[in-house]
Amino acid sequence: MDALLLMRLAVLCLVSALLAGCSLPALDNRTNSRALGITESETTALGRAIAPRVQAHPGKSGITALADAHDAFAARMLLARAAQKSLDVQYYIWHGDITGTLLLDELRAAANRGVRVRLLLDDNGTNGLDKTLAALDSHPNIEIRLFNPFIVRWPKSVGFVTDFMRANRRMHNKSFTADNQATIVGGRNIGDEYFGAGEAVQFADLDVLAVGKVVGDVSSDFDRYWQSGSSYPVDLILPKVNASDMQQIQATAQTLAQSAAAAEYTQAIRTSAFIPQLLKGELAVEWADTRMVSDDPAKGLGKAASNGLLIHQLGEMLGRPTHTVDLISPYFVPTAAGVDVFTKMAKNGIKLRVLTNSLDATDVPAVHAGYAKRRKDLLSAGITLFELRRMSAMGKSTNSAGPFGSSGSSLHAKTFAVDDKRVFVGSFNFDPRSAHLNTELGFVIESPTMARQIAKMFDQGIPENSYEVRLSDTGDLYWIERRDGEQIRYDTEPETGFFKRGFVRFLSVLPIEWLL
């Protein structure tokens, strides 16, 4: 009995020590800073080029889409090079691969020019970067913070065991803002798969480059997150590094930039016209009423009020659709409540079309399980469902799924159009995780032009690069693929095996929908 008691005490002490070791440091001595003021930002090269155009379109924002993966990478690199006073950068994932390393080195180079760099990263997406981030943070002009960080650096999964309710809430926002004059917002994280590099999964995605009124809103929102109770300076979390580590970052980036693997990216930087045209005041943009929507960063601690949630703001801004809803979401988990809303819309004569990933294309089968069990109800309500084909299944097709093209093997863009006049672009997925757990960011753009482009995608490009899911007279699902003018029918999920389908069916009965 004494031995058993001693064993229990030992286990209790071990657990207590583990929990104590996982406690986050206090933020009492954290210093705060704010985005560059508009008066100061207008004296920069970006400000001088943009200000006259903004003054000619009061209250509006200039928007241009970044659909091509190489253009999206080059725009970020060149925006960093154009910055003269500040860079505010916020991302969910940042990989230490080719594109991630080159962009980090570009931030370092900007800091060397005297630019103040603030980098805010969700800590769940920084695997393998601790030494690099600590080295960058040692630069006097760079400050890096981690959102909802993990004290145990490896394996980070320990944090989900000891502090699940906090660790399960992540910062999914994505923005890249230079001199408080131009910003890039959308679906892309920082990594090769988002910019068309490498042989692994490549994402078809969408960002927008914005100038004008909405840029100040993004900067103010960055300040909210920077100063939030979930954002920790890396010097409180990561071990100190040697001065030589900073030199290693530059050396690694220079080696990568000269490699064959990076050739298409260095070429994109040399040939991209986005930022040079922006600096000349010549970049073609659409001037539109654009409103930022963003979750209260208190959501990261489960403390946000309902009116501080992006989903609430979206509902207020979009109102009630009257004609059409065209929705593109890589992770689409409508839940029973969402199916009810869509069904009521359809009964009121609203035409609803949805594009998401097929099981073969998705990178998260668990999320597909949450969607798959709702398909029959959605189809019965009259909603049209398309599932993007994986690139390998597309072969050498030259058809284009709208602005995302056919270069991505998995859909990652998050956008939708309402009534052919209003468009959302951002980080928000139509799933419970985006609605209730993760923080999100996006734009609502009053643009009939962009809305019509999305509608055209559903009319032409999407059907040619997707499977259309249908319901047979007997209530069974089947999939239609359009190829070379013919229709091919599948009675099971295309390009998938028995075990993968069985695994998804198993996941669909588990009570995990709230996590998806």
From TrEMBL:
<dbReference type="InterPro" id="IPR025202">
    <property type="entry name" value="PLD-like_dom"/>
</dbReference>
<feature type="domain" description="PLD phosphodiesterase">
    <location>
        <begin position="167"/>
        <end position="194"/>
    </location>
</feature>
<feature type="signal peptide">
    <location>
        <begin position="1"/>
        <end position="28"/>
    </location>
</feature>
<dbReference type="Pfam" id="PF13091">
    <property type="entry name" value="PLDc_2"/>
</dbReference>
<protein>
    <recommendedName>
        <fullName>PLD phosphodiesterase domain-containing protein</fullName>
    </recommendedName>
</protein>
<dbReference type="GO" id="GO:0030572">
    <property type="term" value="F:phosphatidyltransferase activity"/>
</dbReference>
<feature type="domain" description="PLD phosphodiesterase">
    <location>
        <begin position="407"/>
        <end position="434"/>
    </location>
</feature>
<dbReference type="GO" id="GO:0032049">
    <property type="term" value="P:cardiolipin biosynthetic process"/>
</dbReference>
<keyword id="KW-0732">Signal</keyword>
<dbReference type="InterPro" id="IPR001736">
    <property type="entry name" value="PLipase_D/transphosphatidylase"/>
</dbReference>
